[in-house]
Every structure is written in C-alpha cells, then in structure tokens.
Amino acid sequence: xxxxxxxxxxxxxxxxxxxxxxxxxxxxxxxxxxxxxxxxxxxxxxxxxxxxxxxxxxxxxxxxxxxxxxxxxxxxxxxxxxxxxxxxxxxxxxxxxxxxxxxxxxxxxxxxxxxxxx
Length: 118
Hints:
single chain; mainly beta; seven-stranded mixed sheet; four-stranded antiparallel sheet; 11 strands
C-alpha cells in the first residue's frame, strides 16, 4: 500500500520558518514528480510547488514569491518544502502529492497543519 506521510508542520510566528517533509512508502517515486498543495478552511485547494523526478525542474505558485523551496531526496523517497517568511495567509494543512499523470496527482498524503500566528 502506497503511503505519503507528511511531517514538520506546527505553530510559528509571522516571519518564521518551517521545513515540511514527506516520506513515501510502498512504492519508489524516483521516476515521478512530487509536490505540495494546501487548502485553508473555506478556500479551494491550491497548488504550492512541484519538482520533477531528478530535482532539476521546479514550479511554484505565484504567492510563494521566492519564500519557499522544494527539494527531494530520491534515496530516501522523500520530498521537502522549506518555507520562510511565513505569513498568516500561509496557514493551512499542507498535502504531499506524487505521480503526476495527465492532469492528476495520483497519490496524496493526509496533510500536516501549518499555523502562523500574527
């Protein structure tokens, strides 16, 4: 059974930093893209960042504005999201995704909560 397990969420003050981690099990994703989404209460789910299989190509949502960095370690079957300069608008559960086919991410984690206090 494939599982994506996120960790690293928590409470941080405005301007602070967090590093999210996502560890995959049940399948190797070294040949697949991975990424992050978030969904704040009352808002639609939104794309945050993605990274291709070898880590050579990354994409970010416009709201990231250079504050976040996605990376991966294929030896550990893991993807990371370093988030700096966090603001209250960044507060949401963050979900790890893997295996982008067509227009669909086939695997989703359960999410890790990011809370930013003002």
